Amino acid sequence: MGIEIDRIKDMAEECAEKASSGAADVGAVVADQAKKGFRFVRKAVQDANYEMRLRRYNPLFLDDLQVEGYAFPQMIVIEDGDERKDIDVCEGAIGWSSDEAELNIVHLYSRFAESVGVTFYPSPKMDSVYLVDPNDPNRYIDLGLYFQTIEDEKIAELIEVGRCLGAKKCKVETYEVEKQVSLKKGKVGIGRGAAGADVDASSAQARRKECKTLSVQEFAGSDTPQRPILRLFKDDVTIKNLVESFCGENNANKPKSLHREVEHSSANTMSSAMAGKVETALKKIGAEFNFSFEGEVKKESRQTLALDMEF
Q: CA 97 to CA 21: how far, in whole Å?
């Protein structure tokens, strides 16, 4: 009987040991799975935070420019980028992108200005804003010089037209048409005479301001006209017809002098809608400017360029 009791005790102890060992194994498995689950959750949180930072900082990389269908923005701002140099998602970036007032803007680090495949006129400069050339998508013009640059190029192209057509002397002038509109007869002053005289209800009067000579150039002249390469005035009917009258089939009767006028806006610099977007975008990115883009567009719409040629 004593022997049986001892055997039963041994069996109980053995079972207890196995149970204890099994519990330890189960505990280890549970602990290992818990660690794996924690690492998975931590990685998921890290990935989510990384994606949030990507969306916040929106970095731009050189490789992004090589993606098929990538379109360069309408506006580029040259930045130093120092405030982003320690942000992990911005490591290796050439700048960042933003959308302001329906305009896509690239904030480009100055050290990459020569590496992105576009040109800046007159040159890339820190803290300057550039707008794409309306006639060359790979060229960006300093916004402070934008309207003057386009005007200078319009004048140069008109002079070149005269030279190619064989003119000995070319002169380009500009004048502004001031339009006056009266809404109602006898009502407030828009369109009223200096002495307050009534103006007809639906009248729209225009008068020329004094002409301003922009350029005069003299050449040797030629009896063999050549077709000029038109860039700014490629869609202007007046200039196209002028070229055709010299370079077409019926060009036997060459004039001694010629006068042609083209609307400044026929070689469009910027639309009114675009001017409004540019001003709003500049305010949003904290840029300062001391003139009105919409005002410049309206002024240009009232101007006419006159080309005089002598043969």
A: 60
C-alpha distances out from residue 267 to 146, 153, 215, 232, 264, Å: 14, 10, 18, 5, 6
- The reported pLDDT for the residue numbered 141 is 98
Rounded to whole angstroms, the Cα distance separating 77 from 281 reads: 11
Residues 13-35: pLDDT tens digits?
555 555 555 545 545 544 455 45
User: pTM of the prediction?
Assistant: 0.76
Helices 237-247 and 146-164 pack at an angle, to 10 degrees, of 20
Verify that 141 and 157 share a domain, yes or no.
no
What value, to the nearest 5°, has the Cα angle with vertex 277 and ends 272 and 278? 95
Task: In whole angstroms, give the CA distance from residue 51 to residue 69.
Answer: 23
Tokens 């498995």 found at = 29
Euclidean distance between CA atoms 88 and 103, whole angstroms: 27
Q: Are residues 152 and 129 in the same domain?
A: no
